[in-house]
Amino acid sequence: MPGITGQGTTYNLPNYVGELFAVSREDTPLLSAIGGLTGGRSTTATLFEWQGYDLRDPDANRQRLEGAAAPDGEARVRFHANNVVEIHQESVEISYTKQGATGNRSTDGMPTVSVGGTVIPADELGWQITQQLKQISRDVEASFISGTYQNPTDNTKPRKTRGLLEAIATNVATTTHTAAQLTADDVLDLAQLAWDNGGIRETETRTIVVNSTLKRALTRAFVTDRNYQEETRNVGGVNLQTIETDFGRFNIMLDPYVPKDKLLVLSLEELAPRFLEIPGKGHFFAEPLAKTGAADKVQLYGEIGLEYGNEKAHAVLTVGVTASEKTAAEPAAQSDEPAPAAQSDEPAPAAAKRSAKKA
């Protein structure tokens, strides 16, 4: 059934009896693995940034002569990247009657009747707040993956955090292979891009994130065809399957919010939610609003953004799609207007991209 907008009453939020089943997905594996709505780090500005550095390439011929003068000084230049926190704000409003009439049972158009005993949910307001928090978590999960960066100069447009698909600019590959044709080499070539640029070095957090179609392709390429037995391990409270590759053991995260033609290789230790702390309230809180009648109205509010660390530690593969998949594809845009894809507010060197096309 669809949701409602406005005040919840005994007329538009009917009660039924029996066990209450959830028909929508509630899992947010990526967000849960990196801290959820209660983990991560605080920020004191809507635009937050982080910095990094690299070392020069090793040189097997850098020896000095005996008695030579000191060489010219050298130093490493740090780089920076940034992102913004986006606002998630929802509200729940339940009439006094609806909160009190827990014994009413809807009879689909006929007058309500009292059945006594316990009706699920007994606390309508609390139950609705819980569902809103679940919906916010799903919104954040989708944003962290495919969000399009937006940092407006005025309050006519919302701030939008940059998601992983936009943030990854260096280790980008494509293949003409569809999911049904995906090979182990397609995935290993992508993993090698991340490895060669310093990523996927942590054993416990080396992770491949895919939707259902590419999960089946991974199972075929790395398990079925190689007779390898899948194992599992726990990362950030999320139970993940693992596969063995040339670059070590990878966690496999099945995420419904990843587009079906994308395969992400992530270094999870680089990722963290960033929260704007509201004085006296914290982050992601529920607070009652002023009363204007015989109902309770509660606001849920939080500001959150994604810190993705060194984008070179991650990689993304775009696979080919079939004609039927192209027809069924839905737009994944997060914004009604085009948004810049820059990594920071300052110009950055053009990132090298590699296309790993397979015949």
From TrEMBL:
Source organism superkingdom: Bacteria
Pfam families per the UniProt record, alphabetical: SU10_MCP (PF17236)
Compositionally skewed regions (Low complexity) per UniProt: 338-353
Annotated spans, Disordered: 326-359
Name the record gives this protein: DUF5309 family protein
